[in-house]
Amino acid sequence: MRRLMLRHFTFQGVGMLKKVMRQVKHHRQFILFIGLMLVFRSAVADWNHVPSGSMLPTIVQGDRILVNKLAYDLRLPFTHVSLMKLADPERGDIITFDSAKADKKLVKRIIGLPGDTLAMRNNRLYFNGAALNYRAEPQALADNAGQAAFSVWQETLPGKPHAIRLNDQPSRLANFGPVTVPEGHYLALGDNRDASADSRVIGFVPREEITGKAHRVAFSNDPEHYYWFRSERWLLPI
Question: Which residues form the active site (predicted)?
């Protein structure tokens, strides 16, 4: 009886395997396409959803950003193993990285390269001992009382000036350093300086955690208006 049962289950398993193989053979082109697409997104280029406001005003909630996975390394697909180093991140680059300390993928801007000494005083950066220049931009958000809740400034980071957002009431992250970036690491900050858990929270970013460079908004959905498309942000360079 036991042998009959084993034979029955064996025949049943073989029959199921044959059915699966027939389905694979029948849909092999579609399966190959899915596999190649996954490899492409893992090693060549990808798009990432941005759910938070840590990179305001550059990247807004609901943006889908295009990420060049070949900007810095040719990696073994689905791993962090670098097969060939193509370039090093530059000051001002917006990077994606898999942070071990935060236990999630983050998007931040590189501010400090290995060997740079940086400090922050009241949200103003000092680069190798010299204060960066800041210029106010005509952007602000009013709170419920009609007062400005934040302001937008142009920060003259060497190599890439860019916009940052500062709260009228600075957060506890508004001061640090001076610190010197160690070899093989980078200091990365969010453009929304008072609302970003960046290197001031998680420490320096190891080179091997960096997975790509964000360079453009693919498209954007507005979560406050039924996720309607923001046409003005399609293919917007960042």
Answer: 54, 108
